[in-house]
TrEMBL record, chain A:
Transmembrane segments: none annotated. Residues 3-237 form the ABC transporter domain. The lineage of its organism: Bacteria, Pseudomonadati, Pseudomonadota, Alphaproteobacteria, Parvularculales. The keyword Hydrolase does not apply. The keyword Protein biosynthesis does not apply. This is ABC transporter ATP-binding protein. It comes from Hyphococcus lacteus. One of its GO terms (molecular function) is ATP binding.
UniProtKB/TrEMBL annotation, chain B:
It is a multi-pass membrane protein. The chain crosses the membrane at residues 12-42, 62-82, 89-108, 114-136, 143-165, 237-266, 278-300, 306-325. Belongs to the binding-protein-dependent transport system permease family. FecCD subfamily. Its main location: membrane. This is Iron ABC transporter permease. InterPro entries: ABC_BtuC-like, ABC_transptr_permease_BtuC.
Length: 253, 332
């Protein structure tokens, strides 16, 4: 399934957040959306998830305008992991993950297919051992994995994740990035806002650099120009022979 | 905290508890009737004893149970919608608004127009209060502000209620005011309960149907929308359902507070926090608690019977403070 943004603009409270964004995400792609704080990454992902309408331009899924989809249709096409993840009631972790199956029936009655999707999602995020615990008792990183599992349990062709690895320990950062890459390899379209440039360059098929609401870089991680990263982040990337970023240094002036 | 009982097991246990309490209610009252005699008088005509059991005690116990069940379900539904364990029809002023509606219909003689006017008027006012709360409150303001808005609505409706009573031509208005504000199920007949049946049935159905949407709302409004929940529908079901249930409960028993907080809170301690699974047990427990409270005030050795709403507040208000002290929001 293909997502397309065409000359998309968003202003919030008089401030331009996204300016004239063109974006195309195809099956098999794992896009790392990077940019400094306030660049507009979350707004871009919210727009892709159908939560933020634009002042101009379009956002389409398989050429259908995203705002024209019903909530159920949309939920079966794309799963969205927001950056802020409140859980107002301390539900059992497995019930929270099962909410990812909402569009397929009732969360009160999970059928065998739903149960399998939930179990697979828990396994993919390394959270199977947490499933019987109330989410209120979990640590921040454990809860983040439960939310990610909820997103995966929907088994949608499109996955939109806002900082999916922000609260995770290094081992889980690696395993989650590998898992998202595997999803893309199996034909999903994945886009994730990330701050971890080395991990993004290692696992993503493509990096999009957003700065002040504009896309300033869009390339395979290995060939993303060093100058773009230096201008946007004020840091200098260190790269191995294949071009993968394996460290960051203060910008060398 | 682990789940102690599956929500369905809890519901079955509460049905049994409610039945036991209602049966005990038949034995207890000013006239001492032995349990066996009371049961016999319920099914066969035993003269005066049958009149007491069938026409005084049974309707009274059922009225207390129905009113409590309405409040328990309305509380659980409102808490799910507002995502706040302190939401309660009494605390938020919905009960007071419903009482104002009922009193307006009675003291300005609209109640004589048709049998359904009083419950309907109570429900209409409850609907108004619930809508105001949702528009001003849901998820966007802090718990403290939501409660303050409720306190404001409650005080305003209480004041208007007093004003209506003062202006009323009816000399008994002031003593009735006490009944509406503090709640009682003394001297209720089957007819009083029957009047509200359409509203309770619709109310329970609406609240039950909102369950999946309320579970989704656990993740917040935006995420709930992205997983496919229809928030407009869920909101409408809870607001209309809670209004119908609170209106019906006020029409039966007057304004009774805190059942809507205490019942869901206890249910959560037993069978977890999933809002959809809290609804049915909360209704059953609300009924059981109010039936037990009504039993208690009949056993207490006071010259004048304690008002049911007072008994509920004596149990419920400390519970409210406890919930307020212990509740916290989980965010990451």
């Amino acid at each position: 399934m293909t997502i397309n943004m065409h000359s998309f603009c968003v202003s919030l409270g008089g401030t331009e957040i996204l300016r004239n964004v063109y974006l195309n995400i195809s099956p098999g792609e794992f896009i790392g959306l990077v940019g400094p704080n306030g660049a507009g990454k979350s707004t871009l992902l919210r727009a892709l998830a159908g939560l933020q309408s634009g002042d101009a331009g379009q956002c389409t899924v398989n050429e259908q305008n995203i705002s024209e989809l019903s909530p159920i249709e949309r939920a079966k096409k794309l799963a969205y992991l927001p950056q802020s993840r409140p859980v107002y009631w301390s539900m059992i972790a497995r019930d929270v993950v099962a909410l990812g199956r909402f569009a397929y029936g009732s969360p009160l009655q999970i059928d065998a297919r739903d149960a399998k999707a939930v179990d697979n999602a828990l396994m993919a995020t390394g959270a199977t051992h947490l499933k019987a615990r109330p989410v209120g008792e979990l640590s921040g990183g454990e809860r983040a994995r439960i939310h990610l599992a909820r997103t995966l349990a929907a088994e949608t062709p499109i996955i939109i994740a806002d900082e999916p690895i922000a609260a995770l320990d290094p081992a889980h950062q690696l395993s989650v990035m590998q898992m998202l890459r595997d999803k893309a390899n199996n034909g999903s379209s994945v886009i994730a806002a990330l701050h971890e440039l080395p991990l993004a360059s290692r696992f993503c098929t493509r990096i999009i650099v957003l700065d002040q609401g504009r896309i300033v870089g869009d390339a395979d991680a290995k060939i993303l120009p060093t100058e773009v990263i230096e201008c946007t982040f004020g840091v200098t990337p260190m790269r191995d022979q294949s071009g993968i970023i394996n460290g960051l240094l203060p910008k060398i002036t | 905290m682990k789940t102690i009982l599956h929500h369905q097991t809890l519901s079955i246990s509460l049905v049994v508890l409610s039945s036991i309490l209602i049966i005990i209610s038949l034995f207890i009252g000013p006239a001492s009737i032995a349990p066996t005699a009371a049961i016999a008088a319920l099914f066969n005509d035993h003269g005066a004893i049958s009149v007491v059991v069938r026409e005084i005690r049974l309707p009274r116990a059922l009225a207390a149970w129905v009113a409590g069940a309405c409040l328990g379900a309305a509380g659980a539904g409102l808490q799910g919608l507002l995502r706040n364990p302190l939401a309660d029809p009494g605390v938020l002023g919905v009960s007071a608004a419903a009482a104002l509606g009922a009193v307006l219909s009675i003291y300005f003689n609209f109640a004589t127009l048709a049998f359904w006017v009083t419950p309907f008027s109570a429900i209409l006012f409850a609907l108004g209060a619930t809508t105001i709360l949702y528009v001003l409150g849901a998820g966007r303001v802090s718990t403290a502000r939501l409660i303050l808005i409720g306190v404001g609505i409650s005080s305003l409706c209480g004041a208007l209620l007093s004003l209506v009573m003062n202006l009323s031509p009816n000399p008994y208005a002031l003593s009735d005011l006490i009944n509406w504000l503090f709640g009682t199920v003394a001297n209720r007949s089957f007819q009083d309960i029957a009047l509200t049946v359409p509203f309770t049935v619709v109310g329970f159905a609406a609240i039950y149907a909102s369950g999946p949407g309320l579970s989704a709302l656990t993740l917040g409004e935006e995420t709930a929308a992205t997983i496919g929940a229809n928030l407009a529908r869920t909101t409408m079901l809870v607001i209309a359902g809670a209004a119908a249930l609170v209106g019906a409960s006020v029409a039966i028993a007057g304004a009774i507070g805190f059942i809507g907080i205490v019942a869901p809170h206890i249910v959560r301690a037993f069978s977890g926090h999933n809002p959809a699974h809290v609804l049915v047990p909360s209704a059953l427990l609300g009924g059981a608690i109010l039936t037990a409270a009504d039993l208690m005030i009949r056993v207490l050795p006071f010259d004048q019977e304690l008002k049911l709403g007072v008994a509920a507040a004596l149990i419920g208000a400390p519970g409210f403070v406890w919930v307020a002290m212990s509740s916290k929001r989980i965010t990451s």
